[in-house]
Amino acid sequence: MSKPEETAQAGDAGLNVPETEIESNWDTVTDNFDDMELKPELLRGIYAYGFERPSAIQARAVVPVIKGHDVIAQAQSGTGKTATYSIAILQRIDPSIKAVQALILAPTRELAQQIQKVVIALGDYMNVDCHACIGGTNVREDMAKLQDGCQVVVGTPGRVYDMINRRAFKTDKLKMFCLDEADEMLSRGFKDQMYEVFQLLPQDTQVNLLSATMPDDVLEVTKKFMRDPVRILVKRDELTLEGIKQFYIGVDKEEWKLDTLCDLYETVTITQAVIFCNTRRKVDWLTDKLHSREFTVSAMHGDMEQGQREVIMREFRSGSSRVLITTDLLARGIDVQQVSLVINYDLPSNRENYIHRIGRGGRFGRKGVAINFVTSDDIRMLRDIEQYYNTVVDEMPHDVADLI
User: Fold this and answer.
1) What are φ and ψ of residue 30, in 5° steps?
2) Rounded to an integer, what distance in angstroms lies between the CA atom of residue 195 and that of residue 242?
3) How many CB atoms are located within 10 Å of the residue 25 CB?
4) 3-state secondary structure of 379
5) Which of 174, 185, 269, 340 gives 20 to 30 Å between its CA and that of 98?
6) What is the superkingdom listed in this entry's lineage (predicted)?
7) What residues contact 282, with CB distance under 8 A and at least 6 apart?
8) pTM value?
9) Cα–Cα distance, 112 to 70 (Å, whole number)
10) Cα–Cα–Cα angle for 5, 356, 296, rounded to 5 degrees
């Protein structure tokens, strides 16, 4: 969420989320920030940031988190989950105490930095320090910043665990622990590191878990670490892909995808587009191929240097770069208001990643178009995705440009 005016529109649009989407054991809906009993300086930060009214998830989840309940909140990408726990954290911490009181974990550096920006912006009038504790940055600087004191840390599991272990990150004053994109975090890659972080936290730490999808194994893990949580869940078969037109293009062979994409390029650059590949190698290969044909694209994946990734994201956010090629892991750190087209050059290898990719295309229920390249080997996976999300992916019409 880069600009206040964009967020203001988004806040309004968030109200259109159908009530039936949220299955909750918490009935209270507070659909006005003024009624959440927030600190005046926090309320001022919320309105200055451009929010007008809470989105559906904010209207339900902010209050139970503030009251100290453990909360599991599920909502599609782009419904304002980050601001949900950021507001609650800023309400609960004591700015006069220069010690870490809230920890937010995210699966990628990009998402962690984005969360840090939201916390800083919302807490603009509160004299709150929020530090991003992420890999790819200087360890000594990290330690120095933590020793200087800050109230909120947002980070990736490996670096946070390292800082707690080195005693640079003291957890004695910690009262809140938030997991964003928990499905990604608790999947194989981060499960062990997360468990290690949990072991090092005070017993009475409040745990909040947020995600777009909530597979059974994630819910199992919540039983280990959460106490009688408030559940704010979207039913899986109603997890909305509403407002996003989904199409496929049949490409019999893998090697035909490139020509198909080149044919689509004029259509793609009408707006900003994100193209997903399943591997870092494929991202590099596709970028090189498109550059050699003199198409302008940027690429981003986990092998790149931190500084390089930041420049690429800045160019894409500002609109000076219009087409971004990336992988699943970074799908969750891309929050760009103007993206209305997503192309799955490769269908995701994990069906739960489908909504993370597509969710980028229609943030806060804005319209979006998703185009899936489907080889004969992918047909079964496409059917599986349709069934899983109870949705229909149609063959792409000739006039797709008019829909974007």
Assistant:
1) -115, 95
2) 35
3) 12
4) helix
5) 185
6) Eukaryota
7) 345, 346
8) 0.60
9) 21
10) 70
Question: Reduced to 3 DSSP states, what percent helix, strand and coil does the chain have, rounded to the nearest 5?
Answer: 45, 15, 35
Which tokens sit at 358?
């597509």
Indicate the CATH number for domain 244-403.
3.40.50.300
Residue 14 carries which side chain, given as an amino acid letter?
Answer: G
- Whether the CB-CB separation of 42 and 90 falls below 8 Å is answered with yes
Distance CA 69, CA 91 (A): 14
Asked, colleague to colleague, whether 4-236 and 244-403 share their fold, the answer is yes
For the record, the structure tokens of 145 come out as 């910043």
Residues 244-290 have pLDDT tens digits of 889 999 998 999 999 999 989 877 767 788 999 999 899 999 999 99
Measured CA distances, 356 to 5, 305, 382 (Å): 24, 24, 16
Question: From CA 294, how far away is CA 138, in angstroms rounded?
Answer: 37
> How many Cα atoms within 13 Å fall on the side-chain side of residue 11?
24
In this structure, the strands spanning 339-344 and 206-211 are unpaired
Domain boundaries, the chain: 4-236, 244-403
Q: Indicate the burial class of 192 (C-beta count within 10 angstroms; 0-12, 13-18, 19 or more).
A: exposed
Alpha-carbon span 73 to 233, nearest angstrom: 6
Phi, psi of 61 (to 5 degrees): -95, -25
Q: What percent of the chain has pLDDT over 90?
A: 45
Closest CA to 88 of 54, 114, 127: 54
Cβ atoms of 245 and 403 within 8 Å: the answer is yes
Name the stretches of the chain with pLDDT < 70: 1-23, 76-78, 187-188, 234-240, 242, 269, 306, 329-338, 359-367, 404
**Mean pLDDT computed over every residue of the chain:** 83
Residue-by-residue DSSP string for 234-269: E-GGGS--TTEEEEEEE-SSGGGHHHHHHHHHHHHT
CA-based nearest residue to 215, from 330, 334, 352, 329: 352
CA angle 203, 184, 124 (to 5 degrees): 70
DSSP letters for 98-159: -S--EEEE-SSHHHHHHHHHHHHHHTTTTT--EEEE-TTS-HHHHHHHHHH--SEEEE-HHH
Select from 402, 401, 394, 398 the least CA-distant residue to 245.
Answer: 394
Question: 305: helix, coil or strand?
Answer: coil
